[in-house]
Design goal:
single chain, alpha+beta, Kinesin, 3-stranded antiparallel sheet, 16 helices, 22 strands, 17% strand, Kinesin_motor_CS, coiled coil
């Protein structure tokens, strides 16, 4: 972390084992990982003899024998601790289809040793809350996916509804109408996760039997209230984005038909936009960062160069048939580690739900206390009246001072009032001196009083229920601690954290020593003869020549990669052109010219939502129809009349 408050994006690489299918096909292994140095070497299976493997250095690397807990303790745990302190955090897995992104993020939920980052972070968050003291927490969870550039709420009842991206100057980019559930323990948040996972888009391809066909983001918002040194209540809000990206794919390797090629095209376009954003951030010369090129990059805007601590897990396939994809992933990750973020604690934001809950609880408590005090006064006056009338009571007068609680107080008061009214009603019926009309009138009054009392009882019970429900949503640290067991567990976690930190420091020191050794070797060398000097310098020359050849090969590889990406984009463009031509034909042959003109006159482009919209048929704010916006939010975009009509057809119910 630099002095200016900037922090580099943390990048780790993870390689899965060879699959049975790859072993049966006879593919060779092209990846070598040095865990101690944090390096990944990849060998080109089509390379000429003597060509050196390409080497990449990351913050950490995990080979096929690594455990889920190793990755979490060394890399993820420090970030979750920061989120609990009020920072924003993002963890996302990037790589080719079938390299273990979903396994790394979710794992096997039923097997403790194979649980991924997401379930382990749930345990971490609620364990921390249970151990905290004098703090109130509110934990909320949301789950969404981006499928074919459309945002879907995985927890909503209506799965067909497409959500819109909005931007607020204070809070940044957010999703309008995204559902959020308050969770009080690990079981509840896991239930939310499982519900969303059931509706996520998955499919089978040649690369993976259960391939994710969408980008999924599980968002956890943690609000913490604590009394500061100034005696005031301060709220910190940490947001954790757990992102499971869909895999990058080559159309030729997928072996799919129907919707799969279209899905792959959209996935590759959004990942290409992500790569462009990273390139622009790393470049330093770019004045414009293309966050708006895709919904994924807009949602990750804070995570890439903004207010967040970010970890990227690059997942790799070791087999020779995945060489191109693995090399592309390594280059992508190598660029990403140069991104600088500016994380800060989110303290006392205006839109915290925790503050709303606290204020509502105080209001409900005040109403209940008001009803309770009223109950005391009425009971005392009732008793005094009975004493005056000679109907003495044997009840203990000290009961008012020794109440078991507000709820019992109210229950006793309401019961007492009901009994008194029933007694008075019976007395009126037994009184033969009253005229029947007066008796009827008095009985009606008493019936009304009994009904009012019943309504008051229902209102009080409703208030008490609401109060309990609101209070139960707030998690108070320290209430559910089994001291001895938790202390041992806490010590064990601290030791594991110390070991992970020590490994990280050792890795950094080894990387630094390696660099220094290369720089100082020439200074330390002495020669006993001219022949020895010639031999050593010849070796150096050969080494430098090999490096030159490696750089040339890298340039050629980059060019080949550019050609491949360009071909994929051209395929996507051709597919969109075919769709557009089809719509042109429909417009020409099936839509009357006057209807087409009506559609064109009502269309305008909304720059904020990046889509074409219709002007309302009925004016909303005045006698005339609202003019088309021409500001940066909504502006006219030059486009052919047929294209405008074709784009509008997708959202117009008449032409679906």
């Amino acid at each position: 972390k630099s002095r200016s408050g900037c922090e580099a994006l943390k990048v780790v690489a993870r390689c899965r084992p060879m699959s049975r299918k790859e072993e049966a096909a006879g593919y060779e292994r092209v990846l070598e990982l040095d865990v101690k140095l944090g390096q990944v070497s990849i060998r080109n299976p089509r390379a000429v003899p003597g060509e050196l493997p390409k080497t990449f250095t990351f913050d950490a690397v995990y080979d096929a024998s690594s455990k889920q807990a190793d990755l979490y303790d060394e890399t993820v745990r420090p970030l979750i601790d920061c989120v609990l302190q009020g920072f924003n955090g993002t963890i996302f897995a990037y790589g080719q289809t079938g390299t273990g992104k979903t396994y790394t993020m979710q794992g096997a939920w039923t097997e403790p040793e194979k649980r991924g980052i997401i379930p382990m972070s749930f345990e971490h968050i609620f364990t921390h809350i249970s151990r905290s003291q004098n703090q109130q927490y509110l934990v909320r969870a949301s789950y969404l996916e981006i499928y074919q550039e459309e945002i879907r709420d995985l927890l909503a009842k209506d799965q067909s509804k497409k959500l819109e991206l909005k931007e607020n100057p204070e809070t940044g980019v957010y999703i309008k109408d995204l559902s959020s559930f308050v969770t009080k323990n690990v079981k509840e948040i896991e239930h939310v996760m499982n519900l969303g996972s059931q509706t996520r888009s998955v499919g089978s391809t040649n690369m993976n039997e259960h391939s994710s066909r969408s980008h999924a983001i599980f968002l956890i918002t943690i609000e913490c209230s604590e009394t500061g040194p100034d005696g005031e209540e301060h709220i910190r809000v940490g947001k954790l984005n757990l992102v499971d990206l869909a895999g990058s794919e080559r159309q030729s390797k997928m072996g799919t038909h129907g919707e799969r090629p279209k899905e792959a095209s959209k996935i590759n376009l959004s990942l290409s936009a992500l790569g462009n954003v990273i390139s622009a951030l790393v470049d330093g010369k770019s004045t414009h960062i293309p966050y708006r090129d895709s919904k994924l990059t807009r949602l990750l805007q804070d995570s890439l160069g903004g207010n967040a601590k970010t970890i990227m897990v690059a997942t790799l396939g070791p087999a020779s048939h995945s060489y191109d994809e693995s090399l592309s992933t390594l280059r992508f990750a190598n660029r990403a580690k140069n991104i600088k973020n500016k994380p800060r604690v989110n303290e006392d934001p205006k839109d915290t739900l925790l503050r709303e809950f606290q204020e509502e609880i105080v209001r409900l408590k005040a109403q209940l206390e008001k009803r309770g005090m009223l109950g005391k006064k009425r009971r005392r006056s009732s008793r005094r009246k009975k004493m005056v009338d000679g109907e003495g009571t044997t009840e203990n007068e000290g009961d008012d001072d020794n109440e078991d609680g507000l709820e019992k107080n109210m229950e006793n008061y309401l019961k007492e009032q009901k009994e008194r009214l029933e007694e008075e009603k019976a007395a009126i019926q037994d009184d033969h001196n009253l005229v029947s009309e007066e008796k009827q009138k008095l009985l009606q009054e008493k019936e009304k009083m009994i009904e009012d009392l019943r309504k008051e009882q229902e209102a009080t019970e409703l208030l008490a229920t609401k109060f309990k429900a609101m209070e139960s949503k707030l998690l108070i640290g320290g209430r559910t601690i089994v001291d001895h067991t938790n202390e041992q567990q806490k010590m064990l976690e601290l030791k594991r954290q110390e070991i992970a930190e020590q490994k990280r420091r050792e890795r950094e020191m080894q990387q630094e020593m390696l660099l220094r050794d290369e720089e100082t070797m020439e200074l330390r060398e002495t020669y006993t003869s001219l022949q020895q000097e010639v031999e050593i310098k010849t070796k150096k020359l050969k080494k430098l020549y090999a490096k030159l050849q490696a750089v040339k090969a890298e340039i050629q590889d980059q060019h080949d990669e550019y050609i491949r990406v360009r071909q994929d984009l051209e395929e996507a463009q051709n597919e969109q052109t075919r769709e557009l031509k089809l719509k042109y034909l429909i417009i020409e042959n099936f839509i009357p010219p006057e209807e087409k003109n009506k559609i064109m006159n009502r269309l305008y482009f909304d720059g904020e939502e990046d889509q074409w919209k219709f002007q309302p048929l009925v004016p909303t704010g005045g006698s005339q129809m609202k003019k088309r916006p021409t500001s940066a939010v909504g502006y006219k975009r030059p486009i052919s009349q047929y294209a405008r009509v074709a784009m509008a057809m997708g959202s117009h119910p008449r032409y679906r």
